[in-house]
Amino acid sequence: MKNISVFFFLLVAAFAGNFNQDFDITWGDGRSKILNNGKLLTLSLDKTSGSGFKSKGQYLFGKIDMQLKLVPGNSAGTVTAYYLSSLGSTHDEIDFEFLGNLSGDPYILHTNVFTQGKGSREQQFYLWFDPTKDFHTYSILWNPQSIIFSVDGSPIRQFKNLESKGVPYPKSQPMWIFSSLWDAEDWATRGGLVKTDWSQAPFTASYTNFNADQACKISSGSSSNSCSKKSSGNSWLSESLDSTGQERIKWVQKNYMIYNYCTDNKRFPQGFPPECTIA
Ligand SMILES: *[C@@H]1O[C@H](CO)[C@@H](O)[C@H](O)[C@H]1NC(C)=O
Predict the structure, then answer these.
(1) Is-contact 194 183, C-beta < 8 A?
(2) Residue 105, ligand 1, Cβ within 6 A
(3) Which of 42, 115, 208, 268 has the fewest Cβ atoms within 10 angstroms?
(4) 94 — phi, psi (to 5°)?
(5) Please, which residues have CB within 8 angstroms of residue 185's CB and are 6 or more apart in sequence?
(6) β-strands 33-35, 58-69 pairing
(7) Tell me: the pLDDT tens digits for 153-203?
(8) What number of helices (H) and strands (E) belong to the chain?
(9) CB of 108 closer than 6 A to ligand 1?
């Protein structure tokens, strides 16, 4: 009995990421905590400061899952950012940002893709569940063909490699994984109309079950790139949306997308960016 439970523990430990192993708390002075032997991480925000963490290693392509439970209650003005970035003026970046709201009003999931320092590719969504009640899985599949954003396994957005059509694609700058919880009441709450309710502080978001078993990781302090082949080989490197995925992404975009830069005429009077018009 004892051996079995030890074996099971090791098995679980091998699959679930460990925040102590994979991440560093980078700011917030005690507002960020790694708990339960590395299985849980919390970020918090109070009137003085927010907090954040960063992966120790860098990734050049990968299938990266994280479970988040967002700030509950009146979270208006708070932003929980979870993203991959290579940093620098010509950085590549893949963003999830969760814009808090008044109790009972929906969060906005804001997404963006930067290539060679240029972003302005926002798409925003409501979620089909309350993201503050339970942990939900937010995933990025980034391979040479496309970037697919998913929520609980449902693809919500795809950014295809259209380099052959002149659209830069992130493929050579390794990225770190970042997250932060900060206050952005001027930006995030209908142009500053709704104020952050500091009487509710500290605001806390939680993270668990980080998984980058299928990824090409560049370890800190070494330049060697190893693409782990756990479970299903390297098939993720050529994975694309199958017909179920395509149906699902259409369903999400039809029912939950609230902003798409590719349909914002006012913003692009000279014509949409090329990736918007290539079928
Ligand atoms: C907050 O809720 C309001 C009312 O439902 C909605 O219009 C808005 O998009 C939501 N999100 C934010 C960040 O304000």
Answers:
(1) no
(2) yes
(3) 268
(4) -130, 115
(5) 76, 77, 192, 194, 195, 196
(6) unpaired
(7) 999 999 999 999 999 999 999 999 999 999 987 776 666 678 899 999 999
(8) 5, 16
(9) yes
Q: Please tell me the distance between residue 95's alpha carbon and the centre of ligand 1 in angstroms.
A: 20
| Cβ atoms of 209 and 54 closer than 8 Å | no
Amino acid code (one letter) for 38: G
**Full-model pTM:** 0.91
Q: Which of 108, 122, 124, 189 to mutate to test the pocket of ligand 1 (most atoms within 8 A of CB)?
A: 108
Residue 70: other Cβ atoms inside 10 A = 24
Catalytic residue list: 93, 97
132 ligand 1 Cβ < 6 A: no
CATH code of the region 7-277? 2.60.120.200
- Give yes or no for residue 190 CB within 6 A of ligand 1: yes
Cα–Cα distance, 167 to 148 (Å, whole number):
17
Span from the CA of 27 to the centroid of ligand 1 (angstroms): 29
Which two tokens mark 52? 């954040």
Cβ-contact 76, 185 below 8 angstroms: yes
For atom 8 of ligand 1, the residue with the nearest CA is 106
Tell me the CA–centroid distance for residue 76 and ligand 1, in Å: 9
